[in-house]
Amino acid sequence: MDEIANMFARVGIVGVALVGGALFGFSAFIMAALARMPDAEGIRAMQHINTTVFTPWFMAPFFGTALLGVAMVVLGMLNTDRGWWFPIASAGGLYALGVFVVTAAGNVPLNNRLAAVDADDPKSAELWRRYLVVWTRWNHVRVVASVLALIQLGSALRALGVGPA
Length: 165
Hints:
Elements: H1 2-36, H2 39-52, H3 56-77, H4 85-115, H5 124-159
Helix pairs in contact: 1-3, 1-4, 1-5, 2-5, 3-4, 4-5
């Protein structure tokens, strides 16, 4: 089981880092840049982002890491006698809940509402201003969950005897 945990931790680090890094960009500067644009332009830009995200380059790590996260929870729970069980299980849970579920329950419904508006309709500006705040708050949760999952994956590797003690 140690070999599987080692592999899960290493693959998990790559997946969480790829997805978390993309999400970090939104929290760090992308949403702030969109907020500085005229409302209609910001809405259109985000609408385009929300449709172009559906590529294998993002979706494979996003969904693949979610599946791996669930597998890490199961692996950890089935091996509670091992020193790595908690870091593996908690990393999987942090990603699955804090990134995947938050995306599905928080960010995607907001994206769907934004997709349905006409960027040139003056009423859309109010929705856009609220969207910027609420979407970004949910995104911060996803970034924090990614960072914490990465820390736990590092802890799992240490518990496996890989890396600094």
